Structures are given as C-alpha cells and as structure tokens.
Amino acid sequence: MTQWLRRIGRVLGLALAWAIVWAPIAVLIGTTIIDPDNSMDEMWPAIGAYPGFLCAVIFSALLGIAERGRTLAELSLPRAGGWGALAGVVVGVFPFTIGTPTSSVPLWQLGLATIGSFVLMSTLSAVGSVVIARMANKRQLRGPRAHMA
Fold first, then answer.
1. Average model confidence (pLDDT) across the chain
2. Comparing C-alpha atoms, which of 51, 40, 49, 25 is closest to residue 114?
3. Which three-class secondary structure state does DSSP give residue 71?
4. Residues in CB range of 115: below 8 A, 6 or more apart
5. Number of C-alpha atoms within 13 angstroms, CB side, residue 62?
6. 73 with 92: CB under 8 angstroms?
C-alpha cells in the first residue's frame, strides 16, 4: 500500500512541476502572440497549467506501463522524448474529441497549433525531467557534503 502511495505522490509531484513550468509559458504566449492588445478575458496560467498537469500524468502512466522496473533517471533521453511526445498528442487531441471548435481559424490550423505546442512542450518537459532526475541521482550518490571535501 505504501508503495502505491509513494508512486502516486511522485506522479503528482511531477505533474505539479510540469504545470508550474507550463503556466508562465502560456501567459507569455497568450499575452504577446495570441492577444497582444488584451482584448480577450482568458486565464492564461490555467490554460498552460491544466495541459501540463495532464501531460505529466499521461507521461507517468506510459512510463509505468512501458518502462516497468526503470526509474526516470535510467530512461534514455530519446525514449523520454518519445513518451513525452505521445503524451502531448493524447492531450492535444482530447479537446477535439469532446467538442466543436468555436474559432474562425480553420480546424486544421487550430489542431496543428494545439497538438504541435502540446507535443513540443511535453517532449521538452519529459527530457528536462530525466535530466533533473539524473542530476539528483548523481548528487545523492556523492552525498550531501561532497562539495566540502
């Protein structure tokens, strides 16, 4: 039971980290590219945080299924990028399966922008997570006071 709780805690920690990283990027894109004159009333942090959270949860689920027995630090960067990209595709396609777009932008352009940005961000987040996990692993192996020697 404690192993499951530990795994759920790790997934939630990764998901929160991705959401925190994605939120300011959505604000930046939303206020400079999509709505530079501030005419839209959008919650840009939430627009970035929700997909970031979901991509991390799906990324973790894919790792749990496909990479059983491996830690995040043991994963190769290309494999992490691939799983991250797949998570981005799943989350990017989701809005188009549950509703109809209300934008005047053609559906293919809206889909390309949405899915493409989720795939890019999810891939970068996955690779970044592996790099951070490896750095934490090295630091743990050296010990907390290795820099004092």
1. 87
2. 51
3. coil
4. 88, 89, 92, 93
5. 22
6. no
**Token output for 100:** 């109809």
Classify residue 5 by its DSSP letter.
Answer: H
Ramachandran assignment for 139, one of left (phi > 0), alpha (psi -120 to 50 degrees), beta (any other): alpha
H or E stretch covering 85: helix 77-98
Would you say 57 and 11 are in contact if contact means Cβ atoms under 8 Å apart? yes
Q: Give Cβ neighbours of residue 130 (< 8 Å, ≥ 6 apart).
A: 72, 73, 75, 77, 80
Q: What's the pLDDT tens digit per position in 113-125?
A: 889 999 999 999 9
At 38, is the pLDDT very low, low, confident or very high (cuts 50, 70, 90)?
A: confident
- The amino acid that residue 28 corresponds to is L
